[in-house]
Amino acid sequence: MAADLTASDDDAAPIHIDTSKASIARVYDAFLGGKDNYEVDREVFRRVREVAPEAHQLAWDNRQFLIRVTRFIAAETGVTQFLDCGSGLPTAENTHQVAQRIKPEARVVYVDNDPVVLAHGRALLEENSQTHFSPADIFEPARILQDDVVRSHLDFAEPIALFQLGTLHHYDGARPPADIMREYIDALPSGSYVAISHFLDPETAEHSDLARRMEQTFLHSPMGTGVFRTHAQIEGMFPGLEFINPGLVRCCDWWPTGPRLRPRYPVQYCIAGAVARKP
Ligand code: SAM
Asked: Domain 56-205+229-277: which topology?
C-alpha cells in the first residue's frame, strides 16, 4: 500500500509514503489518539496494548513531560533558544507554542526526518518567523550542528535548550547514544540545558518484566524500534552536565502539575526523563 501527500513547501513534489511500514512519528500519534496515522501504525499500538493495557499513558507521560520541561526552561532559566530533535507530528501543545506563550521572543528549530512530519507538520510547526524546521537525522550530531537552518536561527554563543524527547530509545545504530549526546553537549555553550526522555527498564521485580515485554513487542512490530534502558544507561546520556532537581525520574514524577490522586499505571514506571545544565 502507498499514499501520496503533498508537501507544504511551495516547490516540493508529492511525497510517497509506504503505508505498509509503521513510522515512529505516526505510531506515537496513534498512541496519543491523533488522526495522522495508518492501519499499520495502529497495529503497533494494538500489539503493545495487549501487553500493557494503558500503553497510551506511556506516550502521554512523555508529551506532558515535554510541555512541563518547556515551560520550566522558558519561565525559569532565561534560555530562549530551543533545538527540538525529533519534533513528532504537530499535536495540541507544541514546543514553540508553550515556549512563546511565556517568552514571545523564544526561537525554536525542530528537526525530524519523517516524511509525514515533513508533509503535514512542517507548515503547522513553522507557524511564525521564530519557528523553523529542518529535515535531518538527529543521530548525526555533526550534521545537525552544521545544519543551515539550525545555524541561521540559533546562536551558539548563547545558551540553548536541546531536546531529545522520546527519540533515543528509537536509535538502533552502532554508536553508543551517550557518545552522540556528548558530541551535541560539547557544542553547546555554558548555561545550556539538555532534556531527555527515554523508555526505562525500572529494574524492579514488579515492573521490569513489563518493560521487557513492551520492548520485545516494539522490536518485533512493524515499527521495529523501542529499547528500554536502565537508569544508569540513561543517566550516562548527560555527560558533564549537572542535573536539575529532581534528576532522572519517572516522567510523571518530574514536577507534576499537582498531587497524584490515583496510583500510577504500571507503564508509568517505564519511562523516565531529566533536565540537566551545562556548567
Ligand atoms: N519529541 C516529541 C515528543 O516527545 O513528544 C516526539 C517524539 S516521537 C516518539 C519521536 C520522533 O523522532 C518522531 O517524530 C520521529 O520521526 C523522530 N525521529 C526518530 N528517529 C529520527 C532520526 N533519526 N532523525 C530525525 N528524527 C527522528
From this structure: Rossmann fold (3.40.50)
Number of helices followed by number of strands (H, E) in the chain: 11, 10
Task: Determine the Cα angle at 219 with ends 1 and 109, to 5°.
Answer: 75
Q: Is the model's pTM score more than 0.85?
A: yes
**Helix or strand (DSSP H, E) at 15:** strand 15-18
19-23, 42-46, 92-96: which has the highest mean pLDDT?
Answer: 42-46
Q: Which of 70, 114, 120, 214 to mutate to test the pocket of ligand 1 (most atoms within 8 A of CB)?
A: 114
> What angle (nearest 5°) sits at the alpha carbon of residue 259, between those of residues 254 and 263?
85
Tell me which residue has cell 527498564: 201
How far apart are the CA of 218 and the centre of ligand 1, in A?
Answer: 15
**Other C-beta atoms lying within 10 Å of the C-beta of residue 214:** 23
Residue 137 CB less than 6 A away from ligand 1: yes
Distance from Cα 205 to the centre of ligand 1, integer Å:
30
C-alpha cell at 141: 550530531
Residue 165: CB within 6 Å of ligand 1?
yes
Contact 28/271 with Cβ under 8 angstroms?
no
Given the C-alpha cell 525529533, which residue does it identify?
86
Contacts of 77 (CB under 8 A, 6+ apart): 159, 161, 193, 277
pLDDT (mean) for 230-240: 98
Q: Where are the domains of the chain?
A: 56-205+229-277
- The answer to whether the beta carbons of residues 78 and 193 sit under 8 Å apart is no
